[in-house]
Sequence to fold (311 residues):
Amino acid sequence: MDISIIICSYNRSMNLPECFSCLENQEITDPIQWEVLLVDNNSTDKTKDVTENFISKSTLNIRYLFESQQGLSAARNKGISESESTYLIFIDDDIRVTQNWLQSIYSTFKQFDCDAVGGRIHIESPEKLPKWISPDMYGFLGHQDFGTSLHQIDGIKESPFGGNMAIQRRVFNLIGNFDVNMGRKGEGFKKEEIFKGEETDFFNRLVAAGGIFYYHPDALVFHKILPHQLKKGFFLSLHNNSGILQAKSDTTTYKRQFLDVPLFIFPQLFRAFWRYLITTLTKGPNQSMRQLMNVSYFLGMLSSYQAKHRT
Fold:
């Protein structure tokens, strides 16, 4: 098998028919052997029934898999272990691929023999985006666009996003799979369910191992935004959790501490809060959300350093 497309899903069976239908409409010029692996991550809805019903009517080569360990990383690892393909592509169940998507990714791998390929992700919202979500915040909703040219990327400043990333099989043999201690768990409605970092961790390991990354603009997908992702609490929780993970992964022993927190955190927190306050007073609350997210990030770091000391 040349390609396995791995889709991990938890209690979002309503997304699957449209996701599968877009895969049916691929325009492929090379003789590619490919399959779709739907990994049901312990769903309690009709994910299995919807998948099997689609299989019975579709020409797609779809395999249904079940992973009982909750978490996106565990589900992705299940797909990796069940696939024997040369290239593994990961999308989410709320992704709709465009017609040239699969061919673009395959052609990039064949042309450059690279380790990972990323493409464009454009967001689609069921309602108008709130005024406080500025364009520089679209990335937190999954948006990614590195321009209209095919080019090599560094895997750090420009790196594939989880909703549209492809990885060559040899990479997993080289650096291992996704860290199951990281990544979203559950439906993502609760703060404790939206810890991320597993993709950054994975690609950082690949960069350290000398991995080669490419970006193809024609590997375009559309990501449907859910209503709860348009709430301020979602953005603040993402950043607070990011700060928690950053502190948790810090193995440095600091001599200068206050309340079990490294001293350098406090001036950064103060500056972030000051910028938030000034921006709110001068430009209004719709323009200061980005600064408030920074405050939430440093508060997450502070709480995590204190938690580490208690343990």
Observations:
- The chain has nine helices and eleven strands.
- The longest helix spans residues 289-310.
